[in-house]
Write a structure and sequence with these properties.
- By secondary structure, the protein is an alpha/beta fold.
- The longest helix has 25 residues.
- It is globular.
- The chain starts with a strand and ends with a helix.
- The structure holds nicotinamide-adenine-dinucleotide and thymidine-5'-diphosphate.
Amino acid sequence: MTYKRSIIITGGAGFIGNHVVRLFVNKYPEYKIINLDKLTYAGNLANLKDIEDKPNYRFVKKDICDFEGVYKLMQDEHVDGIIHLAAESHVDRSIKDPFTFAQTNVMGTLSLLQAAKLYWETLPEKWEGKRFYHISTDEVYGALELTHPQGIEPPFSTKASSGEHHLAYGDKFFTEDLKYQPHSPYSAAKASSDHFVRAFHDTYGMPTVVTNCSNNYGPYQFPEKLIPLFINNIRHRKPLPVYGKGENVRDWLYVVDHARAIDLIFHEGKVAETYNIGGFNEWKNIDLIKVLINTVDRLLGRPEGADMDLITYVTDRAGHDMRYAIDSTKLQKELGWEPSLQFEEGIEKTVRWYLDNQEWMDNVTSGDYQKYYEDMYKNR
Ligand code: NAD
Ligand code: TYD
């Protein structure tokens, strides 16, 4: 069959990537979707079990740093779009091992850009109908101050954050025109990759787009990140290591809403633009952790709040950014995106998913998930 489009999604076996792959494979049967993933510790093909046999889906195990391999794949599959999510993504790991972050996030992005440029330049129509979409993070903007520790009425209101908790903890927000001020090796590497993407537009005319999203939560997140780690620990009554005083603020978005934004921006975002993605949904870590404890306890039939004593304050993360808060007005006004879920609904769904999918969690925490790919191909 000839497909209308042929799109590589990098990092499709990871947390956000699997939701993007699923959305595209199901929504666009006329597109060929190629999931290019190295399957690091963070990649798990079991995340895509429900779509792995669809005719318009192909998985390719490959490192984005393999320039020649990526170039050949683009040629073989006549690729006209790239949605680039593959990255090392955990701040704590970047503090211990910054080289891997520079290698994957910077050199890997450059290798993809160069492969796309060289391949697309050989075609008669060149850039026409092409798109290189780079997924980045709000962490490149640095940290905002906590000027209102008790919270203030925010200047924005959205469906997703209109719940009871909707407060802002400062009067400044990340807007697209802010200067980059990354602090962690993770965000420094992501910032560098964003600059390379823009440089490929400005220098060669590549049709690029960049988005910077706030913290995501939802099913299939690797349990080194706050929300899945803590849900699993509460379930097993293990200590909850809260960094510092638990006062840092993060702005949380349900992962499927991020995937919906990616779909919209891939198709309708303006070339060379940057869009911030977020649901105006700030939470102090400690308040969020209390919601997690209450929700897990309630869903497990324990007295609500019974597990508050699991909270354990530990040494703060080095260079811990105080507050992230995205202003996504541009995306909402120009492209009409808005989040679909209120936070209370999203958290309930997420906790339920992790509790219902204990096998997935056990496979990940035991390391067994890494055998899934080998077994899958052995049996074919
Ligand atoms: P993740 O760590 O869950 O998944 C990363 C995926 O990339 C994994 O499947 C891994 O195997 C793959 N990968 C890593 N190195 C690779 C390489 N060299 N070649 C090919 N594949 C490789 O990450 P995530 O949380 O899903 O984040 C995806 C993207 O979204 C990242 O670029 C991240 O910076 C960005 N982002 C994440 C968040 C968040 O809250 N998680 C928020 C904003 C932006
Ligand atoms: P994380 O999920 O690692 O995302 P990010 O660092 O990209 O924001 O952490 C979210 C917040 O939770 C962050 O302020 C660090 C804090 N945190 C803890 O307090 N304890 C933990 O064990 C983890 C993993 C994170």
